[in-house]
Amino acid sequence: MTVTEVWKRIPRRRPPQPTATRVRVKGSFQPNTLFGRVGEPVRIVFRREETSASSERVVFPAFGKSATLPAFEDVTVELFPQEPGDYQFTCQLGLLKGRLHIYPARANDHERSTR
To answer: Cα(73)–Cα(101) distance, rounded to whole angstroms?
Structure first.
Protein backbone atom coordinates (compact mmCIF):
# COMPACT_ATOMS: atom_id res chain seq x y z
CA MET A 1 0.00 0.00 0.00
CA THR A 2 1.39 3.40 -0.95
CA VAL A 3 1.58 6.41 1.32
CA THR A 4 -1.11 8.10 -0.76
CA GLU A 5 -3.49 5.18 -0.30
CA VAL A 6 -2.89 5.16 3.45
CA TRP A 7 -3.43 8.94 3.60
CA LYS A 8 -6.77 8.64 1.79
CA ARG A 9 -7.98 6.09 4.36
CA ILE A 10 -7.34 8.29 7.39
CA PRO A 11 -10.70 9.65 8.59
CA ARG A 12 -10.95 13.42 8.38
CA ARG A 13 -12.77 15.60 10.85
CA ARG A 14 -15.38 17.59 9.01
CA PRO A 15 -16.11 21.15 10.08
CA PRO A 16 -19.38 21.45 12.00
CA GLN A 17 -22.40 22.12 9.83
CA PRO A 18 -24.58 25.05 10.89
CA THR A 19 -27.62 24.20 12.95
CA ALA A 20 -30.54 25.60 10.90
CA THR A 21 -33.67 26.87 12.62
CA ARG A 22 -36.62 28.54 10.91
CA VAL A 23 -38.24 31.45 12.76
CA ARG A 24 -41.60 32.92 11.78
CA VAL A 25 -42.00 36.62 12.54
CA LYS A 26 -45.65 37.57 13.00
CA GLY A 27 -46.41 39.54 16.15
CA SER A 28 -43.56 37.65 17.84
CA PHE A 29 -40.63 35.38 17.05
CA GLN A 30 -41.93 31.82 16.66
CA PRO A 31 -40.18 29.95 18.20
CA ASN A 32 -38.76 32.58 20.53
CA THR A 33 -36.14 30.30 22.14
CA LEU A 34 -33.40 28.87 19.94
CA PHE A 35 -30.49 26.58 20.76
CA GLY A 36 -26.89 26.18 19.65
CA ARG A 37 -23.51 24.99 20.87
CA VAL A 38 -20.18 26.76 21.39
CA GLY A 39 -17.91 26.33 18.38
CA GLU A 40 -20.72 25.27 16.05
CA PRO A 41 -22.20 27.76 13.57
CA VAL A 42 -25.85 28.63 14.18
CA ARG A 43 -27.96 29.41 11.11
CA ILE A 44 -31.33 31.09 11.66
CA VAL A 45 -33.74 31.54 8.76
CA PHE A 46 -36.24 34.32 9.51
CA ARG A 47 -39.48 34.70 7.56
CA ARG A 48 -41.42 37.88 8.29
CA GLU A 49 -45.11 37.23 7.64
CA GLU A 50 -46.34 40.73 8.38
CA THR A 51 -45.72 44.31 7.32
CA SER A 52 -45.46 45.91 10.76
CA ALA A 53 -42.60 48.43 10.84
CA SER A 54 -41.42 47.17 14.23
CA SER A 55 -40.43 43.78 12.79
CA GLU A 56 -38.37 45.11 9.85
CA ARG A 57 -35.06 44.31 11.54
CA VAL A 58 -33.72 41.64 13.89
CA VAL A 59 -30.85 42.59 16.21
CA PHE A 60 -28.34 40.33 18.01
CA PRO A 61 -26.54 42.85 20.25
CA ALA A 62 -24.10 40.36 21.84
CA PHE A 63 -22.90 39.30 18.38
CA GLY A 64 -22.87 42.81 16.89
CA LYS A 65 -25.20 41.62 14.12
CA SER A 66 -28.50 42.71 12.69
CA ALA A 67 -30.46 41.99 9.53
CA THR A 68 -33.26 43.60 7.59
CA LEU A 69 -36.28 41.33 7.24
CA PRO A 70 -38.24 42.10 4.07
CA ALA A 71 -41.88 41.00 4.32
CA PHE A 72 -42.62 37.48 3.03
CA GLU A 73 -38.97 36.61 2.25
CA ASP A 74 -36.49 34.27 3.90
CA VAL A 75 -33.42 35.92 5.46
CA THR A 76 -30.59 33.84 6.89
CA VAL A 77 -28.46 35.02 9.81
CA GLU A 78 -25.35 33.03 10.76
CA LEU A 79 -23.80 33.32 14.20
CA PHE A 80 -20.63 31.79 15.58
CA PRO A 81 -21.00 31.49 19.37
CA GLN A 82 -17.76 31.35 21.35
CA GLU A 83 -19.17 31.36 24.90
CA PRO A 84 -22.05 29.40 26.46
CA GLY A 85 -24.99 31.34 27.85
CA ASP A 86 -28.26 33.04 26.96
CA TYR A 87 -28.26 35.78 24.34
CA GLN A 88 -31.22 38.01 23.59
CA PHE A 89 -32.35 39.01 20.12
CA THR A 90 -35.00 41.63 19.42
CA CYS A 91 -36.71 43.62 16.73
CA GLN A 92 -35.30 47.10 16.11
CA LEU A 93 -37.67 48.66 18.66
CA GLY A 94 -37.21 45.97 21.31
CA LEU A 95 -40.89 45.00 21.24
CA LEU A 96 -40.35 41.48 19.90
CA LYS A 97 -37.90 39.42 21.93
CA GLY A 98 -36.24 36.06 21.63
CA ARG A 99 -33.49 34.09 23.32
CA LEU A 100 -30.60 32.09 21.91
CA HIS A 101 -29.35 29.50 24.41
CA ILE A 102 -25.80 28.34 23.70
CA TYR A 103 -24.63 25.10 25.32
CA PRO A 104 -20.95 24.43 26.11
CA ALA A 105 -18.86 22.60 23.52
CA ARG A 106 -19.12 18.83 23.56
CA ALA A 107 -16.43 17.24 25.74
CA ASN A 108 -15.18 14.96 22.94
CA ASP A 109 -14.75 17.96 20.60
CA HIS A 110 -12.34 19.52 23.10
CA GLU A 111 -10.45 16.23 23.48
CA ARG A 112 -10.05 15.90 19.71
CA SER A 113 -8.77 19.44 19.31
CA THR A 114 -6.10 18.97 22.01
CA ARG A 115 -4.63 15.78 20.55
So the answer is: 25
Nearest to 33 by CA among 45, 23, 46: 23
Please tell me the total count of domains within the chain. Answer: 1
- Is the preceding peptide bond at 31 cis, omega within 30 degrees of 0? yes
> Is residue 3 a part of any domain in this protein?
no
Element spanning 98, H or E: strand 97-103
| Rounded mean pLDDT for each run of 10 residues along the chain, 115 residues in total | 70 63 97 94 96 96 97 97 97 96 78 46
Q: Is 50 helix (H, G, I), strand (E, B) or coil?
A: coil
**Alpha-carbon distances, residue 92 vs 22, 63, 105 (angstroms):** 19, 15, 30
Residue 8 lies in a domain: no
Within a domain: 2: no
Q: Is residue 69 situated within a structural domain?
A: yes
At residue 7, the pLDDT reads: 64
In one-letter notation, the amino acid at residue 109 is: D
